Amino acid sequence: MLRFLFKHKFKSALCILLIAVVVVAGFVIYHGRDLASPARRALQDYHTVILENPEAHGISIERLDCLDGKVPTLIVEPDSQSVVGKRGELLRSQTKAKGVQLSEHGVIVKTVVLLHGRNGRKEDLLPVAERFCAVGLRCVLIDMPAHGDSPVQLVKFGADEWEQDLPRAVLLECAEKFQFSADHAALWGMSMGGSFANSAVADPKHGHTWSSLTIVCSFDSLQSVLEAQSHSSFLTDCVSKVCQSSGGADISQVSPALWVKDVTTPVLVVHGKEDQLIPSDNGKNLYHSYASERKRWIQVAEGNHSNILITPMPLYAEMAEWILQR
Q1: Residues 271-301: pLDDT tens digits?
Q2: What distance in Å separates the CA atoms of residue 165 and residue 155, rounded to the nearest whole number?
Q3: Which of 253, 273, 317, 322 lies 20 to 30 Å from 297 when distance is taken between CA atoms?
Q4: Partners of 2 in the beta sheet?
């Protein structure tokens, strides 16, 4: 009887162990592959509303497939023939209240390249572009690799040479096509897009392209963020190996805090105090890593990773002032 019970308990324990191994293996494989090639986000209704009637939002939109078709791009400009939308009017009044002199609607004073976050797409940033256009900024919206309509299947968070140069190369192609100056352009990146932006400004050959940098809810080290989420360095290492073997990045090498240690570009770092996906401490560590003497930290008290751009805080006015005056 005792032998039977022992065998039964042993088999039960073995089954539980095997199930745990399968679950952990599934977790590692899923997340490793998803980091290398995430699920694509479809167009949303609010995207379509703006795309089909841009003049109602005070903007015009042009499309261009850049870099031999690898980077679908939107060029969003203020439309002088239409009226500024409600979002734009609010930003104009808030920006003027900060003492910034604005040109008439439709006059473009600068270009800013906008880089979306992981699992996003360029159209997610149309409401951001609508606001920035209202204060005279031309906005270049890019589908990041393995996102949106990009034909590229893998993403490395800006950790390889092609991805590092991607924002600059797209800017130059758009400038040539639509006959505008690429000089003194600004760079703006959110979350994963912030990693790409940090890689771009850290480029020793072309980092000087950018007059200013704005980073929203991004990280100092991808590995530290994943370890905080999984509560295990072992699991993170396993996920990294799967990601790398799937053609993605070596997670340990995605370290913007190390990339930017010599960056002197003026940088504004924005982070939500309530961000659970990328904790505020990661953003603060990144902020302290820049060599630039012209840097500013903004913590949004009610902000988390999802609502950072839509809290009551007049954050767009802070960002617009930063971009326009540098």
Answers
A1: 999 999 999 999 999 999 999 999 999 999 9
A2: 14
A3: 253
A4: none
**Measured distance CA(1)–CA(6) in Å, rounded:** 9
Burial 283-310 (b: 16+ CB within 10 A, else e): bebbbebbebeebeebbbeebbbeebbe
Distance between CA atoms of residues 258 and 254, nearest Å: 9
- What integer pLDDT is reported at residue 70 of this predicted model? 98
Confidence of residue 2 (pLDDT cuts 50, 70, 90): very low
Q: Which residues pair with 215 in a beta bridge?
A: 189, 269
Q: Give me the percent of the chain exceeding a pLDDT of 90.
A: 87
Q: Tokens representing 201?
A: 């400004």
Choose among 114, 100, 42, 104: nearest CA to 78.
104
User: What angle do the packed helices 86-97 and 126-134 form, to 10 degrees?
Assistant: 50
Q: Where are the domains of the chain?
A: 1-36+222-251, 42-220+255-324
**How many whole angstroms separate alpha carbon 200 and alpha carbon 209?**
9
pTM: 0.93
For the record, the structure tokens of 290 come out as 């820049």
Q: How many CB atoms lie within 10 A of CB 208?
A: 11
Structure confidence at residue 15 (pLDDT)? 72
Class of domain 42-220+255-324: alpha beta
- Which of 60, 101, 105 lies closest to 80, judged by CA? 105
What is the structure's pLDDT at 223? 94
